[in-house]
What does this fold into?
Amino acid sequence: MFSSLLIANRGEIAVRIARTARAMGLRTIAVFSEADRDAPHVRACDEAWPIGPAAAAESYLVAERILEVARRSGAEAIHPGYGFLSENAGFAEACAAADIAFVGPPIGAIEAMGSKAGAKALMEKAGVPLVPGYHGADQSTDRLSAAAIEIGFPVLLKASAGGGGKGMRVVRGEAELIAAIEGAQREGKASFGDDRLIVEKYLEQPRHVEVQVFADRHGNTLHLFERDCSAQRRHQKILEEAPAPDLDPTLRAEMGAAAVAAAEAVGYVGAGTVEFIMDASGSFHFMEMNTRLQVEHPVTELITGLDLVALQLRVAAGEPLPFTQDALTITGHAVEVRLYAEDPARDFMPQTGRLVHLRLPEGEGVRVDSGVEQGGVVSIHYDPMIAKVIAHGADRRQALARLAAALGRCEVVGVTTNRDFLKTLVEHPDVIAGPIDTGFVGREIADLAPPPLMAPLWVLALAGLAEMRALNADAKARAARTCDPRSPWARADAWRLNDSAHHDIRWRQGDDECRLEMHAAGPGWRARVGEAVVAVSAEDGPDGTLLATIDGVRRSVRVVGDRDRRTVLAEGRSWTVVLVDPLAGIDDAAESGGRLVAPMPAKVVSVAVSEGDVVKKGATLIVLEAMKMEHTISAPADGTVASLPVAAGDLVEEGEDLVMFEASDAPSENRA
It folds into this structure.
């Protein structure tokens, strides 16, 4: 076993690797960008080295800088985690040249599986089942079109070097084929520098089932059972579980054997994942192999009792796998979701900001992997994942119930998250009944991610109560500093001479605004909006909570303030309202004219127009990038580009002007 390990990654996987390696007695070395100087993975290691600016392309993706740190720190091995350089054959080769162990597969295996077309050719020779399709060298439009027609519609076009849904098109008829081929080629070229495509039969309502494989340098290749990742949005996994629900033991064994054959075909070593697509009949077909540890590996760990990171390190050091296939068994069921800073109500747009308040759940059968902490910042430079929330139970229903309860205990203030969406998903009757197919989330998205509900009166009352408690504490502090602390002017109970005691508070939710009257009533308050009234009082609870009584019902709640925002956390949900300053001036934005503004902090990737251009409705104006996702700013109507205050490469904040646009109808602000 080597004695020191450099972790060429960040976030929760870097924290996880550091903890496992330190427990094994290894000296751990972190690398960090300027944005991650105080990140948890930095403190989790024995030492940490800076590698450049916040942008990943200038830090975590610069192999030379990481190798230089390895040389200077004396690291004997490098673990790339996932993402960044984890599947970069050139980086693995550079590690070998520097006599540094690369915790990953051989260079040849990375190269073999790096091309979807090449991988399919290898799998075909190895006898691994494939989806009917074309992955040949002739990439002319005529040949691709002929292949699609021969296979039969619907077909799926996929970028050969792609992943994550980029360069992918579903084509249901010949009329749309040419445009789809050209679009997929452009996207593949832009995203991966490679416009080669493969054409496959598109399977309706399939399941995505993947098999975890492990191999050592002593000729042992095993599978650690399967994971079902069918809950997806835009080909991105949302919920993963192990084992796959309702999978026949015979089929499980066949899939495991096929995955082992795939790994052996490329001389694989270490942890990898062979991904299959399964049709309604139960037939499964090879899709691709990920030559690294997967984000969803914890569910496999929980059902097998294995530490996959520790196994990676031992295999990389030349040790044999300490078990045989027959010794592996499945215990219970595990499910995982990814808690993201994103807004489901705005088409899951990534969010950025400071984590003003963060409480992640604990409890029996619950595991949380996170690389952020309260006070940290979710920035535009990296993936917006806050945590992986994982639950294990004796069976699938118990695991899902524990996961739903754990999500209800997640408290995040400062950024909008997908927590409520995830909780709704794992509590959906169809998900509980299982299994689902890859199109389920898309079909049910209206119910899974409805527009946010307005806060009910009792929630507004709790926010108002928190304001009154804060005013009272401030008044008492000021009174204590005066020469007459008993003066009625030092009271905060809304006392009025010849009038009822009350405070008026204006709350805004989205575009709606209401006036909340808080009337003092003994030790508590009566909160009124219009004719509706609720009685509310509270006392301090543990860990900053409030033990509130609302119309006689006791609730443990939390109210978190962030500038003019107040977030109420109660009953496993959260509501955010904005405190309106009645003395504030008119919002300049209301009179700003035809502005297109940034919907989030982002980087301007490209500007497709110039000042004075006349464009049609829907035309691309600007492309933004945030958290590895692109967002297109389109013309809201036919009109003229009046001015462009930004250029490619600029970093913009949410609400910042992107385009001044003159349309034929009345101008208005558009948040694209």
In short: Residues 585-593, 666-672 have pLDDT under 50 and may be disordered.
